[in-house]
Amino acid sequence: LIRNHVDVELSDYIKACADIGSEQFKVELISTAIAQQLQMAKAAIKCFKCRDLGHIRKQYPKGQRRNRKPSKPCPPCPKGFNWSNQCQLKYDKHGNLLPQQGNSKEVLESSAPQSNGTTLRHQYK
């Protein structure tokens, strides 16, 4: 009779079962022994984020990692802790219009000079 002991190695289980049972039984027994050792090894893993045992930071669901708030307030925005690339503020604290972030679809200016010395200007809508 084989029992689950912490001090027994996988090779000991394999040697004990080498001459008994069918091939299917041996495969099931070896897979059970390997699964038990993997569970013990997994329990020893410690997460660097929350310091709990049994998982790592990469195994967190994607939604939990993405909903983090920034540690500092948004520089142009007095409203609080939001990412500056997601800031909806249109005017600064002095009432001046803030430049639009990202690629503007309304006006796209090329800085390459044309033959007549002006810059090329396209209107997209």
UniProtKB/TrEMBL annotation:
One function term, GO molecular function aspect: zinc ion binding
Composition bias type Basic residues, residue spans: 59-71
Biased composition (Polar residues): 111-125
Region annotated Disordered, chain positions: 59-82, 99-125
Alphabetical list of PANTHER family matching this protein: ENDOGENOUS RETROVIRUS GROUP K MEMBER 24 GAG POLYPROTEIN-RELATED (PTHR40389), IGE-BINDING PROTEIN (PTHR40389:SF3)
Protein name, as recorded: GAK5 protein
The organism of origin for this protein: Sylvia borin (Garden warbler)
